Amino acid sequence: METWRIIATSLFGVGGLVMVLVAMAQVRDRKHSERKEVVQAGLIGLVVVAVITLSIALWLPSVVAWALVAATAMAVLFLTMAD
Q1: Which of 15, 35, 73, 80 has its Cβ near the most Cβ atoms within 10 Å?
Q2: pLDDT, tens digit, for every residue of 38-73?
Q3: pLDDT digit string, tens, across residues 5-15
Q4: Which H or E element spans position 77?
Q5: Of all helices (H) and strands (E), which one includes residue 17?
């Protein structure tokens, strides 16, 4: 496996996990949300992150992989810094 794939996969994985946690927190903060909904949001988010991470690791071209990493980094910065 190429070095750039390992780095891009790692960066996307970390950013994706942060995004899943942010999504779970947003679901939790909604009025009348139940624990089941928070867990469901977390599971759906983890599946999406896992599929994209495997795609980056195995077959996506470098331009697409790095675009996904950059978009995730911008989303994490925007969602965690904006208040």
Answers
A1: 15
A2: 999 999 999 999 999 999 999 999 999 999 999 999
A3: 999 999 999 99
A4: helix 62-81
A5: helix 3-29
CB atoms within 10 A of CB 74: 11
Cα–Cα separations (whole angstroms), residue 40 to 11, 13, 60: 24, 19, 28
Find tokens 């970390």 and name the residue: 14
- 42, 20 contact by CB (below 8 A): yes
Q: Are 16 and 64 in contact (CB under 8 A)?
A: no
Neighbours of 39 (CB within 10 A): 12
Tokens representing residue 81 in the block: 């810094």
Place of tokens 């942060």: 18
Distance of CA 15 to the CA centre of its chain: 5
Maximum C-alpha span of the chain: 47
- Which tokens is 74 given? 């911008």
